[in-house]
Amino acid sequence: MTGESSSAKPALTCPFEKLRPSQLVRDDAFFMSLAFNLAVDAWRIDEVPIGAIIERGGEIIAAAHNEVERANDPTAHAEILAITQAAKKIGDWRLNDCTLYVTKEPCPMCSGATIMSRLGRVVFAWGDPKMGCLGGATPLHSLPKLNHRVNVTSGVLEEPCREILQAYFNLKRGKDSTPSA
Questions:
Q1: How many CA atoms lie less than 13 Å away from 48 in the CB half-sphere?
Q2: What's the pTM value of the predicted model, to 2 decimals?
Q3: Three-state DSSP class for residue 154
Q4: Which residues pair with 10 in a beta bridge?
Q5: Catalytic positions
Q6: DSSP bridge pairs for 123
Q7: Within 10 Å of residue 143's Cβ, how many Cβ atoms?
Q8: Which terminal residue of the chain has fewer beta carbons within 10 Å of its beta carbon, N or C?
Q9: What averages of pLDDT result for each successive group of 10 residues across the chain (181 residues)?
Q10: Residue 10 to residues 13, 67, 115, 124, 152: CA-CA distances in angstroms?
Q11: Is the Cβ–Cβ distance between 166 and 3 less than 8 Å?
């Protein structure tokens, strides 16, 4: 294959199956299922398994997973990549009528990007008490002087999204990575 580096990482076996959301009900669980499936894709290329989807009017306008290692870029988080895609897709950096679905609570950088892009809503699966900034470690979106308020929903498909992240980091730390039953 031309253009590909010979040092590309091989695909990793992921113990998690992709979810099969029904197209009939496009609710929070539907979109989070798609974000989870992107997290599985991230695992397979040895990236931290976080996936993000942005929807507008019930249609997906952006989809990404972490690419920090692949891009050698500390800002290549799923949320940042999806926000960039969405802005290009609609031709405006203001994403007021869009919803971001992400498998883990956004970090300080990504939380700031949700505010700066004027996202109407953020839905995340698993909260992060150490680095999450949409309610976990700090509620960045609730600072009193902000000129934009992001509506935040948490806990959607929390269990599978938490399990894939925990299993990935346990594997990296040399612990048992088998998902719990």
A1: 17
A2: 0.85
A3: strand
A4: none
A5: 79
A6: 101, 153
A7: 10
A8: C
A9: 48 69 81 96 95 96 97 97 98 98 97 96 94 83 83 94 93 68 40
A10: 10, 15, 36, 29, 36
A11: no
